[in-house]
Amino acid sequence: xxxxxxxxxxxxxxxxxxxxxxxxxxxxYSMLRVxxxxxxxxxxxxxxxxxxxxxxxxxxxxxxxxxxxxxxFVLMRLVARRQEKIRRSLPDALDLLVVCVEAGISLDxxxxxxxxxxxxxxxxxxxxxxxxxRKTNAGVTREEALRGLWDRTGVDEVRTLVGxxxxxxxxxxxxxxxxxxxxxxxxxxxxxxxxRKAATxxxxxxxxxxxxxxxxxxxxxxxxxxxxxxxxx
Length: 233
What we know:
Helix content is 85%, strand content 0%. By secondary structure, it is mainly α. It starts with a helix and ends with a helix.
């Protein structure tokens, strides 16, 4: 496998953000790219008709370009999907953290407890919080562990939350209040995002209606009249 793919820092960061943070993940990704780059042109060579040399060359070249671009695109889609899952699960995790902190549990113990409780409901969020708990237990400072949470997820809401928690810890303010305000803000932002998508839905439906629905309606409504006009002439 080419080392340029395995040692690429951007690729390594995206693999971590997808949840594949093992030391073998970059090598496996590089091998997958090599296999895709070999398999797709080979499939194109075996399936395309050998009637024209230029057509075969164009087909194989197109398959090679597609194989070269497919793994990065899939990786970016996996990153976006995991970030969306974490973004959706973050308010629930914050609510549980508020309950644990207000009950008298320390923030480190609360992170561990919430990570265990969210294992089956929100596994991506649970794994990210579990890494933070393990780092703090291993001797890493809480600030570095929390900042690493944003590096491992790439979610902007997590970065804002981490900054607020770090500032509250430095100034000695209540962590539960920061968590509660952050949860309310995230829920309000998610509601506004849904409302914005709902408002833009009619505009997005214009193109499918114009391409697929209106022609079928015209054929059904005007078809008999056109047939009668043509038969009359």
